[in-house]
């Protein structure tokens, strides 16, 4: 990079922000990562809603950033039981939860020299040759600004206000969800994940029995029952032939039930991608592309983006603005690929 020691400010300490911070620090930047959460121990909103994904973060990340991939693989819990229904192909093996992924990425970023500042919320963005982000108690300047604020897209909104002409492409396919959560008794099976996704995919149902004895069942699509206890939910699951899920759900007591409509998948783009007046910035993670909410896809998309970032940082132009433009271009192309893979876009 042209500056001996460029400073980078990463907004958001979710999986994308932690991974980006680690990679930028590895490439020689002085990185600070900020998050309004009180600390890494305060779960992000969706961490409570457990994420399960296979322990291998994927060949691209293994190749581009072996240390991050190794940290993630090492964080996988060894004894999850995963069952895909109705094929019934049971698989027992290590799975990685979002909490574990975040802990591993936080450790990797700390080891790479990243400084963390939790409990701060940015208020305003300005720039001259650097960005300046204002907070309640002052401001920070940086040569490189990274938006990793997830669906909040704080930087994108702030840049829009500065006239960067960003666009947000929405696909009108919001998902209807119903999630039940409750406690399981000590003798109930733990670390079970089961997914039922019929080929016509109008509805999909998944169950997760966590190590901490929390049960989550999510029903995507129409026809969710009104169940408010484990046995009531078990009865509805049995009616769909989901005996293995019903057996676990039956052990739960009262259930909390939330119905919600998830936002449609979104992709961020720019009208003027090479705006020379803006200092270096890029967007990564859900802030860039939100995939259709499918089991295991969001985090997989984050890992693919981190792999792209790692490879640009390894061989990209040294000047921060050129480097950031190269990152934006590569990540935007990749994001479209994610949509194609997820079946939301089709090739004309
Ligand atoms: C209910 C639900 C279930 C999901 N289930 C799965 C699953 O099973 N498997 C899977 O792979 N994916 C799943 N996903 C998707 C997955 O959670 C996301 O793809 C992933 O968390 C994206 O990581 P991220 O770091 O981009 O964003 P986030 O994880 O959203 O992190 C963003 C961070 O930015 C911080 N932040 C917010 N505003 C600001 C601000 N103004 N300044 C600074 N920081 C800010 C937040 O506090 C947060 O820590 C699920 C998502 C949801 C909502």
TrEMBL record:
GO molecular function: monooxygenase activity
Keyword tags: Monooxygenase, Oxidoreductase
Top-rank taxon: Bacteria
Protein name: FAD-dependent monooxygenase
The organism of origin for this protein: Psychromarinibacter sediminicola
Taxonomy of the source species: Bacteria, Pseudomonadati, Pseudomonadota, Alphaproteobacteria, Rhodobacterales
